[in-house]
Backbone:
């Protein structure tokens, strides 16, 4: 392992590190990264799949069959298919989404960039996204990959999370702060 490897005390971080090392050894990092992105969308966007993978009633063998079938259907490649099969065999299928996120963060870190999660009240336009990326690059001092999500309950504005930092400029938070300030008066 090199000196810039990050190993966390959590299983998703360790598995993500292992996947990164496997992908680098097999010189298939780009294809694994592409596969992880598509699988992350599948696993995070399907509540029934999440429920099934976290349900202890289902046998481990069934979970292995499900995740490998999903990987095969998504055409993600042999390495990634075997990886998620092993994860399911080790009774960690419910943590796949976290592993994918940790993997993306490790890849971004290796490339000298960071990943920011931007949650907005409405879908951001390309111009807004470009402006946010530019401002984040200035604030962080390096390239920032942006992952977007829409949450209408914010009412307006957006929330940005980069690593352990959180920037909240949502209308919902501002109204809650104003409500608290009025109660104190």
Residues:
């Amino acid at each position: 392992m090199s000196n810039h490897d990050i190993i966390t005390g959590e299983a998703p971080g360790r598995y993500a590190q292992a996947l990164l090392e496997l992908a680098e050894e097999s010189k298939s990092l780009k294809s694994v990264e592409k596969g992880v992105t598509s699988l992350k969308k599948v696993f995070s966007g399907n509540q029934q799949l999440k429920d099934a993978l976290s349900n202890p009633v289902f046998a481990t063998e069934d979970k292995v069959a499900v995740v490998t079938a999903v990987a095969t259907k998504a055409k993600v490649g042999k390495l990634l298919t075997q990886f998620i099969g092993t994860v399911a065999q080790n009774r960690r299928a419910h943590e796949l989404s976290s592993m994918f996120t940790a993997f993306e963060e490790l890849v971004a870190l290796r490339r000298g960039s960071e990943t920011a999660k931007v949650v907005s009240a409405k879908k951001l336009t390309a111009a807004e996204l470009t402006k946010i990326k530019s401002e984040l690059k200035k604030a962080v001092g390096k390239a920032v990959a942006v992952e977007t999500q829409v949450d209408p309950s914010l009412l307006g504005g957006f929330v940005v999370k980069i690593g352990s930092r959180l920037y909240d400029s949502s209308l919902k938070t501002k109204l809650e702060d104003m409500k608290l300030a009025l109660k104190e008066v």
